[in-house]
Amino acid sequence: MLKLEPRPAPSRVMSIASPLLALAITVLIGVVLFLLLGKDPLRGLQVFFVEPLKSAQALSELAVKAVPLLLIALGLAVCFRSNVWNIGAEGQFVLGAIAAGGVAMLAEPAGSGIGRWIVVPILLAGVLGGMAWAAIVALLRDRFNANEILVSLMLVYVADQVLGYLVYGPWKDPDGYNFPQTITFLASTKIPRLFDGLRVNIGLPIALLAVAGFWAFLFRTYAGFQLQVGGLAPAAARYAGFSSRRALWTALLLSGGMAGLAGGLEAAGPLGQLTPHVPAGYGFAAIIVAFVGRLHPVGIVFSAILMSMFYIGGELAQSRLGLPKSLTGVFQGLLLFTLLACDTLIHYRLRWKPAHVPAEAPPAGTDQPAAAEGQA
Amino acid sequence: MDAIALLIAATLSSGTVLALAALGLLINERAGIVNLGAEGMMLIAAIAGFATAVHTGSDWLAFAAGAGAGALLAATFGVLVIWLNTNQYATGLALSLFGSGFSAFVGINYVQAKLSERPHFQLPWLADIPLLGPALFRQHPMVYAAIALTAGLAWFLYRSRAGLVLRAVGESPESAHALGYPVRRIRLAAVLAGGALCGLSGAYISVVYTPLWVEGMIAGKGWIALALTTFATWRPARVLLGAYLFGGVTMLQFYLQGEGVQVSAQLLTMLPYLSTIVVLVLISRNAGWIRVNMPASLGKPFFPGS
């Protein structure tokens, strides 16, 4: 029968092959699903993997969705590497959108006399909004030992209600026919676009800069090194005198700030106003993006593009194939599931062992010295 | 007075939802496994139960379908976590994300569906007592089942041999393994039981409590149930008590709105989530106390040396 056997050292090849294997298995399940639903699987694959790359327009839309995923996932990668389980990025995204939207609306009375520089305070407000929301998690974890998984998640629901309160209440557009939405932000507060006629905006270069920044932080700074040691070997980090409290705060503030930035870019960019539909699940999808990208800034670029294809594919599957849009969520979840299963192969290898061999049989080759060492 | 009786009745019903799921998660955690997939299992069980109730008209078949769906998902989680040693947090999270997508996907045709006339339950004679009758004795049988389950689980954990083994597995899988107990199979059994109970809770929500199907209708109850096990320091009776407490907080919003209190609807909706945070903070403040009560191997993988 098949047995799992620990590898002497983690396999670097499997570490890169595992996401590809997981994607292949997810696609395979997708093909079966399309067949079961009576749809042409080739058409289905085309909708997910070809159409989003077909034209400049399509590529622009791909980037519009990949940018928030990329930004949030970069921050989460730092969190997960330092073993801080922030799963409430969705809430930090919403707070970023609220804060950025608030500043954008402050510009309203000043009218059109306002300059393009207003975008800077808008985005800064987004970053601060997200940071503040994540700071609650850090504070409660630091001072009161409250589990960050549950607190950050509960704050997602609270953030949704804060947004709801604002758009149904004090921030509701007086001329909006009583719809729960704010005014449309002034044109001058909109995030500048890169090309005429395409929705992709300066969020894309910002995100790519962030990739470089996070790479440098994680792999070229002492603080980044300390964080990672704390995540991999807490005891070693303690012994080295690395502060776990500082790691907690750094990880949460960074990831909160990134999620807030994504929220600000979204609110002042493609959305252009606040509605109850600001939370689009990017914060949760970014968790998958971070893991599929191996918690590595460069890997996350690819996984963010992949996840954006899932989003666009889901929308196209709805309009072209008559399938529910939630197909996206099914594939996203499946991908993370299969990835985690495939990741086992990084630390273990599969061995075929005949089932009838008696248990007393001496373990083969490499195990012998280790056993002898143990007895010595 | 009638309003108070109704509030108590609603609290018990709402608490039952949380109690069923939290008791299931308690079994998981007593064996050393944290399943963050509770929310996802409850969502899929909710649609499985609701669809079954729509097609068969039987609540009991719906509960069975919900529990079955929960157990099936838990089995996937269990195999990954127990045999493939995947990270428990990440795997549970995957289950929750998959659950919210998959339930929305299969549930799309049931959004407008309605269940047949809901039966009314009442205990003979007891239901006619003024105040106590409407408050306590006109509940769905599942409410009493949750209380019985709590008592049964407390007996199982502290008075039975099998319960002792389960706790041993959660405290020190190495010792249990050395004594010859099949640690991984025991853990899988605990995960399956937990999944089935979360599933039962999900089906109870969509078939009895709400009763309808909407995307994302569990609205964090799976996560609150996870918080409840910590709140209860992993004891069944305290889980039930905590569940009623949170059920009461959830119901308070409707009661206050009914009384015409001028508070924004959003603030009231926030209450259960905010109180979860507050309670977590209060209970976790004493780190030593949590450590003493927490199953020692919670969240840690166990790979028997080959």
Brief rundown of the structure:
The complex is a heterodimer of chains A (376) and B (306). Chain A has 376 residues and is mainly α. Chain A has 14 helices and 2 strands.
Q: What is the CATH class name of chain B?
A: Mainly Alpha
Number of helix segments of chain B?
Answer: 13
The CATH level-2 architecture of chain B is identified as Orthogonal Bundle
Mean pLDDT of chain A: 90
Question: Hey, roughly how much beta strand do the residues of chain A contain?
Answer: under 5%
Most extensive interface between two protein chains, with residue counts: A-B, 49 and 50 residues
Biggest sheet record of chain A: 2 strands, antiparallel
Q: In which range does the helix fraction of chain A lie?
A: 55-70%
Number of H/I helices of chain A: 14
Please trace the helix and strand order of chain B, writing H or E for each element.
HHHHHHHHHHHHH
How many extended strands of chain A? Answer: 2
Mean pLDDT of chain B: 91
> What is the radius of gyration of chain A computed over CA atoms, rounded to a whole number of angstroms?
24 Å
- C-alpha termini separation of chain A: 32 Å
What is the H/E string of chain A?
EHHHHHHHHHHHHHEH
Model description:
The complex is a heterodimer of chains A (376) and B (306). Chain A has 376 residues and is mainly α. Chain A contains 14 helices and 2 strands; from the N terminus they run βαααααααααααααβα. Chain B has one domain: ABC transporter involved in vitamin B12 uptake, BtuC. Helices cover 73% and strands 0% of the residues of chain B. Chains A and B meet through β1, α6, α11 and α13 of A and α3, α4, α10 and α12 of B.
Give the tags:
heterodimer; A: 376 residues; mainly alpha; two-stranded antiparallel ribbon; globular; disordered C terminus; B: 306 residues; ABC transporter involved in vitamin B12 uptake, BtuC; 13 helices
